[in-house]
Specification:
334 residues, alpha/beta, TIM Barrel, five-stranded parallel β-sheet, three-stranded parallel β-sheet, 11 helices, Polysacc_deacetylase_ArnD, Glyco_hydro/deAcase_b/a-brl, NODB_dom, signal
């Protein structure tokens, strides 16, 4: 796919070069036939405004090179960021959790506070009120045997979810990743090494995302756009960095202790816990390594719908970065 695009870009550039060179050649011939020969240089021939053919051809070649570069950029996905613009932002990890406090609409309150504060960086903790929607997401650090069952239930219930995968999961379970894509789910970036991004340099945190991004693009022809930081860890700087790459950071408004396969709460407790916090605009985080989640998923979907909510495929918009160069770090006020 990428080699084809590069070939097209190169071919277009060569066509332009041949065409422009031919035009230059015709112009040179016309000029030489209309100017009388002279044994001595004149003032006009020495003037800076008179360009030599070789110089003109060099300029043309430079221009064609620029055009070819622009064409290549237009047909090839790029992922870049400018760290200089976010240096004034806070670099300390923001401690947070969805908590158990809810408002009168059963919406968890801490995600709403964080949405108000960090939504400018393209992060979502909770979807807007009155949206009528519910978003289901799964984290996939490794395969524990339950993802096929989860996918079966989602297919049966006609539900699209977001699966945040790591590079080891993608490499060890390519058939499951392909199934996710083919069955209409969104595959999100949970990084290559599952590092806490706030404990790394911005460059290393960026590379941790880009390595998986490039692998998915090359091996699945799939461009990721959603990112979930390992441990839910973020700072203002990491949020801004991710936003500048064109990604949306997806946190959550509900999660529970389901990530330890050897310490599951039990099906009844899991069902009670997940159904208790159903709310409009919810972004649910469930871990696919959980036996309990696989067992209760169908019932959870039915209960969400019974409460009048649509379990929607991810459709929250990307928020482009504002000019953050003059922003004050939250730590400056401390």
């Amino acid at each position: 796919m990428k080699s084809t695009k590069a070939f097209i870009a190169t071919a277009l550039a060569l066509v332009m070069l041949v065409s422009l060179t031919a035009c230059t050649s015709r112009n040179d011939n016309t000029s030489s036939s209309s100017v009388a020969p002279s044994s001595a240089p004149t003032a006009s021939s020495m003037a800076p405004s008179s360009s030599e053919p070789d110089d003109l051809l060099s300029d043309i070649e430079d221009g064609v090179s620029d055009v070819a570069s622009n064409i290549e950029s237009a047909v090839t996905t790029t992922m870049s960021t400018d760290f200089d613009k976010i240096g004034a932002l806070g670099s300390d990890q923001v401690k947070w959790g969805p908590g158990v406090l809810v408002d009168e609409a059963n919406r968890t309150t801490e995600p709403q506070v964080h949405q108000e504060e960090y939504g400018q960086f393209g992060a979502y903790f909770i979807a807007p009120a009155d949206c009528g929607k519910f978003y289901l997401t799964f984290d996939e650090g490794y395969e524990n045997g339950y993802t096929p069952q989860i996918l079966d239930v989602l297919k049966e219930k006609n539900v699209s979810a977001v699966f945040f995968v790591t590079l080891p999961f993608v490499k060890s379970s390519p058939d499951l990743v392909r199934r996710m894509i083919d069955e209409g789910h969104v595959v999100g970036n949970h990084t290559s090494h599952h590092w806490n991004p706030t404990q790394k340099s911005l460059d290393d945190a960026y590379k941790d995302i880009k390595e998986l991004h490039d692998y998915m693009l090359e091996n699945f022809d799939y461009e990721m756009t959603l990112y979930r930081p390992p441990e839910g860890a973020f700072s203002e700087q990491t949020l801004a960095m991710v936003q500048q790459t064109g990604y949306t950071t997806v946190l959550w408004s509900f999660a529970y202790k389901d990530w330890d396969p050897n310490n599951q709460p039990g099906v009844d407790t899991a069902r009670e816990r997940t159904e208790k916090f159903i709310h409009e605009g919810a972004i649910y985080l469930l871990h696919a390594v959980s036996h309990d989640n696989a067992e209760i998923l169908g019932d959870l979907i039915d209960e969400v719908r019974a409460r009048g909510l649509e379990i929607a495929k991810w459709d929250l918009p990307y928020v482009p970065p504002a000019d953050v160069s003059s922003s004050q770090s939250s730590s400056d006020d401390d």
